[in-house]
Write a structure and sequence with these properties.
Layout (H helix, E strand, L loop, with lengths): L3 H9 L5 E3 H9 L4 H10 L6 H5 L9 E4 L8 H8 L13 H4 L2 E5 L5 E5 L1 H9 L7 E5 L6 H16 L7 H11 L2 H12 L14 E2 L1 H9 L11 H15 L5 E2 H19 L8 H13 L6 H4 L7 H13 L4 H8 L3 H10 L2
Parallel strand pairs: 2-4, 3-5, 6-7
Antiparallel strand pairs: 1-2, 3-4
Helix pairs in contact: 2-7, 8-9, 9-10, 11-13, 12-13, 13-16, 16-17
Length: 349
């Protein structure tokens, strides 16, 4: 038996790959609290008409799979919100055939049936004791590989869902990778180099928070030309330093962005006279000292950013908070004018 929190965490972090819908439902049914057992008991119903089942997709939902490679993360609260739906009289709505609509399935060459749109509705149906649902299926060519099937399903999923319920950028990233999109696969390569995880694409690594900033960082050439190493080298270096210091914490995309900019500026300074350049071991030591001895947080460096210079703002605070530079030196090192520096000084008080 498990708690709601444990099951919610498990389901939101399902590994990339295929999962049986019935297994997910059993996980939900394993929640031991009386509140949730009662909720699931009230959700059961046996009054669906035979006419409805006659029009349903023939495969029993217990035998259907879902490929998490391109699906949204499953949020258990969303499932329970649906179980709580009531009609105008306050009665539980139950399995509403009118609201459920039609679910989209795909049949792969191995004869397995996958739901590519309507994942949550299939789970809700099984929780309510309904084992069949209206649906339509695409049948993949028998010569296709599993990867080709997944790519086609991901393409359909992306096209359909981006037009209705907007997908978050990290969800677009996940689906884009499954689709084989070169833009997103390029970001995934950097993500793996950085030893970070987004929605299970690099499972087991520290989670990245602030994906949008990370995407901007690695796709919009944030660093000037003429650097001796590729700019993403600094991104990966920054990421590993942050994860090593604030272990067991989510790695902030803005912190990665700011520290990468600081490391780039440090490399640039080493080529132009070493006025502020510091040894990498000393930078790591200062970062650890800031986090451990001074109880410094990532947010203390990323808060109150200048809208026009978010990355430079974080780098400026790293100069001051972590490396102990004066405001004047930090501004010169990062490339800020007096007005910008003063705005950061005021906002940091």
């Amino acid at each position: 038996m498990a708690t709601f929190t444990e099951v919610n965490k498990h389901l939101s972090e399902l590994p990339i790959g295929e999962h049986k819908i019935s297994t997910i439902v059993k996980d939900i049914q394993s929640i031991s609290s009386q509140k949730h057992l009662r909720k699931l008991s009230l959700a059961k119903q046996n009054n669906i008409s035979s006419e409805y089942f006659a029009k349903c997709f023939p495969t029993n939902l217990n035998d259907v799979y879902v490929d998490i490679s391109y699906q949204r993360s499953l949020k258990l609260k969303k499932i329970y919100d649906h179980l709580d739906l009531t009609d105008d009289s306050g009665n539980f709505l139950g399995f509403c055939t009118e609201l459920c609509g039609t679910v989209d399935f795909a049949i792969r060459p191995n004869k397995k049936v996958y739901v590519w749109d309507g994942f949550r509705r299939c789970i809700i149906a099984l929780l309510k004791g309904v084992e069949q649902i209206k649906g339509e299926a695409i049948i993949h060519p028998t010569t296709w590989s599993d990867a080709q099937c997944k790519q086609k399903e991901a393409t359909y999923f992306l096209l359909k869902n981006s037009q209705s319920e907007p997908l978050k950028q990290e969800e677009l990233f996940k689906s884009g990778c499954a689709q084989g999109d070169k833009f997103y696969l390029g970001i995934k390569e950097v993500l793996i180099d950085c030893e970070l995880d987004v929605l299970g694409l690099n499972l087991g690594k520290p989670k990245l928070g602030g994906y949008v900033e990370f995407q901007k960082l690695v796709t919009k050439s944030p660093f000037s030309e003429g650097v001796t190493q590729p700019s993403n080298y600094f991104v990966a270096q920054a990421s590993k330093m942050i994860a090593g210091v604030w272990n067991n914490e989510e790695v902030s995309g803005f912190m990665v962005s700011g520290l990468a900019h600081y490391l780039w500026a440090n490399e640039k300074d080493s080529q132009n006279g070493n006025e502020y350049c510091d040894d990498i071991t000393n930078i790591e030591s200062n970062l650890k000292n800031f986090a451990v001895k001074k109880k410094g947080t990532q947010s203390s460096c990323t808060k109150d950013r200048l809208h026009s210079m978010p990355r430079q703002s974080v780098a400026w605070r790293i100069c001051k908070n972590v490396m102990g530079m004066s405001s004047i030196d930090a501004s010169k090192f990062i490339g800020m004018n007096d007005e910008q520096s003063e705005m950061l000084n005021v906002s940091g008080k």
